[in-house]
């Protein structure tokens, strides 16, 4: 459905996209992850032909992107990061306006607008202007304006920024419903837990480049630490760190709050091995926790910085 | 026609503000209309009392003259009670009283005020009395200066004579009055249209031009040309509706008082100033989407231009520099389209062309600014 190959976009000396490549298949939710300024929005704007690019290729629905290709544009929807709604128009009028840019038939448009209002559950607020809506409801309206014409491909640029937990849950469930209906979603976010919960595949971006792509499990496999175990002992032993490093699959052992943090390169049998070690050495542990590597770890290891940096 | 309808819907959302502005405009127009109506003045027979301390030829002549058109009663000087006479004026029993001092004749010779009059200064009768006394002494003095002797009776005869004044056929006083009113009305309407369009259209279009909304529109299958076309058409429709309100509002307000008014030229002028204002708005819209800046610029441009173009006050009362500057402003040429009641279309053609050229110039500037903005983004 989308193919981006070696795209370069420069703003004078600044390289916003550096040979960026990525693909998205029909019905997938693909997450574009990366810190602020990593090129996510530039990549989306290039795909939407809002920006020209210096080199590379972009194809959507098998056709090269072109700002004059209305057949392709008709099948695309966008939910921008900033609220793009008219302050003076009410909920119904806002959705109707944007839907009208795609659908000229009045009867059909009316039906689509009603469906969109229903989808984002704004029925009670249909006569409200945005000024009277809460932040979460405004976000829902912003989404409704982007999906009313039932796009096959939807770009969602951080749709849950500054949204309360209830509205965020509502929005994420809505996206899942759209996927179930066959919509392909390109989703950018800061929130790793959202991406983990929602995305089939992820593209991790840094400094305009794609540094890793794949499912969460594929990405996890691409880094050295698969599992972290934190353990604390009742008695101190000078050689403990060295002895723990000798355990199978241990990558490294570090100290954390008086405890030991053990990094394992696999996720298999780490805890049984550690418990066996404790029993055989007649040790008493005060704390024992295990955590599989998260997207945050993946990001940290791949880029050397936190996602929210 | 989604954008067309969307823009018109936005204007509809400003209906209260539009109604207030229209009401304010027509409120002023009606007020000026009433103020402009001609006042009729008819002289009345005054009820006067005269205390003659002088008993001279000129005092007797004055009383005789006043009695020609009024009732001047001579009262006994010994029974004179000034306060009682003042009360009579207050109660409208008499219109005034005149005290002729003993030295009236020497005063007259010396050119000093001769008599004292008391009347209600708030009424036109006061003016009538003053005028009558002034006329009598002015003519008497002129005669005295010429002949060296006093001839009160001849002066009274002279003042009783009348002449016929025939107004030249080409000067139609009523038509000129109609034209003067409509000229001021159109001046004000031009200023109001500028202010209205710059503020209302500016505010509406600032939303449509905001980057977030524009991005969504650009992503849609609507072509830029179609968007521009619908945007321009909607603004023209709004502009024409405003012109229609102004023009037909005046026609309704002055129905029966439109003879001698070059209505066609005034309508053309209003249409041209609307087009010019939309072109200015286009430039402002290309420069900024900030509503505060738009409103500020709208007021600055409309008031500044109206002031310097003779719309708010006649250019004649301004200095030479201001008059020279005015000739370079489109609003000045707007007023020249209907500058005279009998102006011909060929005479109006030049100022019309100037306003049209200003419109085209601003459209070109707007296009350049917008293209530069697109390139830089």
UniProtKB/TrEMBL annotation, chain A:
InterPro entries: AAA+_ATPase, ABC_transporter-like_ATP-bd, DrrA1/2-like_C, P-loop_NTPase. SUPFAM superfamilies: P-loop containing nucleoside triphosphate hydrolases. Residues 2-232 form the ABC transporter domain. One of its GO terms (molecular function) is ATP hydrolysis activity. Gene3D superfamilies: P-loop containing nucleotide triphosphate hydrolases. PANTHER family: LINEARMYCIN RESISTANCE ATP-BINDING PROTEIN LNRL (PTHR43582:SF2). The keyword ATP-binding applies. This is ABC transporter ATP-binding protein. Pfam families: ABC_tran (PF00005), DrrA1-3_C (PF13732). Keywords: ATP-binding, Nucleotide-binding, Transport.
Automatic annotation (TrEMBL), chain B:
The chain crosses the membrane at residues 12-32, 188-206, 227-251, 263-284, 296-315, 349-369. GO terms for molecular function: ABC-type transporter activity. It comes from the Bacteria. The keyword Transmembrane applies. It is found in: Cell membrane. Residues 18-367 form the ABC-2 type transporter transmembrane domain. Keywords: Cell membrane, Membrane, Transmembrane, Transmembrane helix. The keyword Transmembrane applies. Its main location: membrane. InterPro entries: ABC-2_transporter_component, ABC2_TM. GO terms for cellular component: plasma membrane. It is a multi-pass membrane protein. This is ABC-2 type transport system permease protein. It comes from Salinicoccus halodurans. The lineage of its organism: Bacteria, Bacillati, Bacillota, Bacilli, Bacillales.
């Amino acid at each position: 459905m989308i193919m981006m190959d070696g795209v370069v976009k420069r703003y004078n000396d600044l390289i916003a996209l550096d040979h960026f490549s990525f693909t998205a298949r029909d019905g997938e939710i693909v997450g574009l992850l990366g810190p602020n300024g990593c090129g996510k929005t530039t990549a989306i704007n290039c795909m939407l032909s809002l920006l020209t690019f210096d080199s590379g290729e972009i194809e959507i629905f098998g056709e090269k992107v072109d700002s004059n290709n209305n057949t392709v544009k008709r099948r695309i929807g966008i939910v921008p990061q900033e609220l793009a709604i008219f302050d003076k128009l009410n909920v119904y009028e806002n959705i109707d306006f944007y839907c009208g840019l795609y659908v000229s038939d009045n009867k059909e448009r009316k039906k689509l607008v009603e469906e969109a209002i229903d989808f984002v559950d704004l029925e009670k607020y249909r006569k409200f202007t945005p000024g009277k809506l809460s932040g979460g409801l405004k976000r829902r309206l912003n989404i409704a304006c982007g999906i009313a014409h039932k796009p096959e491909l939807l770009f969602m640029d951080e749709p849950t920024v500054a949204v309360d937990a209830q509205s965020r849950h509502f929005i994420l469930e809505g996206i899942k419903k759209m996927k179930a209906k066959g919509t392909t979603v390109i989703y950018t976010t800061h929130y790793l837990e959202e991406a983990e919960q929602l995305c089939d595949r992820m593209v991790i971006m840094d400094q305009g480049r794609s540094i890793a792509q794949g499912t969460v499990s594929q990405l996890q496999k691409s880094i050295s630490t698969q599992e972290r175990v934190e353990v604390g002992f009742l008695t101190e032993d000078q050689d403990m760190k060295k002895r723990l490093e000798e355990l199978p699959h241990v990558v490294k052992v570090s100290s954390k709050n008086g405890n030991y943090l053990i990094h394992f390169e696999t996720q298999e049998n780490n805890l049984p091995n550690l418990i066996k070690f404790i029993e055989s050495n007649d040790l008493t542990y005060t704390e024992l926790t295990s955590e599989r590597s998260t997207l945050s770890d993946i990001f940290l290891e791949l880029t050397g910085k936190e996602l929210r940096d | 026609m989604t954008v067309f309808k969307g823009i018109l819907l936005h204007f509809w959302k400003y209906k209260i503000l539009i109604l207030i502005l229209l009401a304010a405009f027509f409120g002023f127009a009606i007020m000026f209309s009433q103020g402009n109506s001609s006042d009729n003045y008819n002289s009345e027979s005054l009820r006067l009392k005269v205390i003659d301390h002088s008993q001279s030829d000129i005092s007797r002549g004055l009383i005789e003259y006043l009695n020609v058109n009024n009732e001047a009663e001579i009262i006994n000087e010994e029974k004179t009670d000034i306060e009682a006479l003042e009360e009579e004026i207050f109660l409208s029993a008499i219109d005034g009283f005149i005290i002729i001092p003993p030295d009236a004749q020497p005063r007259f010779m010396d050119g000093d005020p001769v008599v004292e009059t008391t009347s209600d200064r708030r009424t036109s009768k006061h003016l009538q009395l003053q005028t009558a006394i002034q006329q009598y002494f002015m003519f008497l003095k002129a005669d005295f200066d010429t002949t060296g002797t006093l001839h009160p009776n001849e002066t009274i005869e002279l003042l009783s004579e009348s002449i016929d004044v025939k107004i030249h056929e080409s000067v139609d006083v009523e038509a000129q009055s109609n034209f003067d009113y409509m000229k001021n009305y159109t001046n004000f309407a031009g200023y109001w249209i500028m202010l209205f369009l710059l503020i209302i259209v500016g505010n509406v279009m600032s939303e449509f031009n905001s980057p977030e909304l524009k991005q969504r529109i650009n992503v849609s299958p609507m072509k830029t040309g179609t968007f521009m076309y619908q945007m321009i058409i909607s603004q023209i429709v709004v502009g024409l509706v405003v012109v229609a309100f102004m023009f037909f509002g005046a026609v309704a307000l002055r129905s029966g008082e439109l003879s001698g008014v070059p209505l066609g030229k005034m309508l053309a002028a209003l249409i041209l100033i609307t087009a010019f204002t939309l072109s200015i708005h286009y430039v402002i819209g290309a420069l900024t989407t900030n509503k505060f800046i738009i409103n500020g610029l709208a007021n600055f441009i409309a008031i500044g231009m109206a002031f310097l173009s003779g719309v708010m006050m006649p250019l004649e009362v301004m200095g030479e520099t201001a008059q020279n500057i005015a000739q370079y402003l489109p609003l000045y040429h707007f007023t020249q389209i209907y500058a005279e009641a009998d102006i011909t279309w060929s005479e109006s053609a030049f100022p019309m062309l100037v306003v049209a050229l200003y419109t085209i110039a601003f459209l070109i500037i707007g296009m350049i600014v917008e293209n530069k903005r697109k390139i830089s983004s």
